[in-house]
């Protein structure tokens, strides 16, 4: 249930007033509810199973007093599926001006979840809400088919009046042309983060550098996952023209010839090589039969990070059937950055096949030499002094849901086997204290935050070159509902 559904339920006539019996002061209840609200991470596109949000929804249904205490928090994120939703939001903000400060994220989608449908109400939103949500920082367009003429470009221009928008997510969308994306980016002058996930393009065309949005030079975060080749070419140009510090890139073996897909991926990597200090690679590829002792020729020529001189953290996510697992030592071995401090490898296991997927992979890890080769590479002089404590993270997580733990129970045989195998296969890294294992995504987020703190602390200290290391930036969770 989305937030607006919860709010509708909470505003029904069934809300009781708090009974006149001894109870906590309203101020105390308010502090408790505020504390619960701090756990909601609005960067996620899907919060369906977020325990903090569901707790807030339950609080809203306790009584009228508690409903108003949760009011502000539940309206930080608004989902607009149709024109009527926009009109309702406009009326609410007009009648209750203080709520204008509450709105931080707006999701614009077609009427039916999971289906790409027209979003003509986006133009209505841009015109009617312009200047009325001063803290709106994030817009997500999802489950949409945006064809030419469906939204007037003059209406899109009104988005420039949302002066705080710095993040744009485009997920499960069909665009009529690359120029449409260019116009949308141009309409957001303060845009710093752009993610395109599962985005198709109806019109095939070449985009020349002259058509690039003027504000793309300020882009710091770029997520490119499963997009049409012509859109990918456009994003390459944005990356070259900007100072992208965080690049998230997905590689899917099924979309076109593997060689061409890998070549486009390397082009994107190269475009960010002079600026990116954090790189995330998502591999979802089919196995390629190779003779024993050899590696897929694709990785010998691509996924090369040797020119990323500022790289300090690498994140790799592998999806079943984990065909890219043998590639990891090759990718690590070509990193030359003097700032490199941390790397994570996450196996994304299917929720309905957790034990099978993990058991199969553990057997593979026992029989191959991948972990041993990683251990040897990390002991080379180049890595011997720069990788921080617990800087090498091996973990697993589930694919389908953001907030389920995605783990086997603590103490289970597979979890213990995972931990023991990592220690046995990587004894030198274990002895140096740079190896750690994770068993769910929440633990991984904590690890990532720890690495960020370490990096920020070191960034305040002069390095041997007399310059402070650049401060790191969090990779947005791949849990945008599509990872």
Attribute tags:
483 residues; twelve-stranded parallel sheet; disordered C terminus
Protein described:
The protein is of the alpha/beta class and 483 residues long. Among the domains are: 1-74, no CATH class; 277-483, no CATH class. It is built from 18 helices and 12 strands. A 12-stranded parallel beta sheet has the order 1-2-3-4-5-6-7-8-9-10-11-12, with helices on both faces. Helix 2 (26-37) packs parallel to helix 4 and helix 9 (229-241) packs parallel to helix 10. The longest helix is centred in the last third of the chain and has 19 residues, at 441-459.
Q: Assign a percent range to the helix content.
A: 25-40%
For the termini, the CA-CA separation is 21 Å
Q: Give me the count of strands.
A: 12
Strand order of the largest sheet: 1-2-3-4-5-6-7-8-9-10-11-12
The mean pLDDT is 82
**Largest β sheet strand count, sense and barrel closure:** 12 strands, parallel
Morphology: globular
Determine the strand fraction and express it as a percent band.
Answer: 15-25%
The helix/strand series, from N terminus to C terminus, equals HHHHEHEHEHEHEEHEHEHEHEHHHEHHEH
Cα Rg: 24 Å
State the secondary-structure class.
alpha/beta
**Count of separate DSSP helical elements:** 18
- Low-pLDDT stretches: 5-15, 289-294, 401-406, 464-483
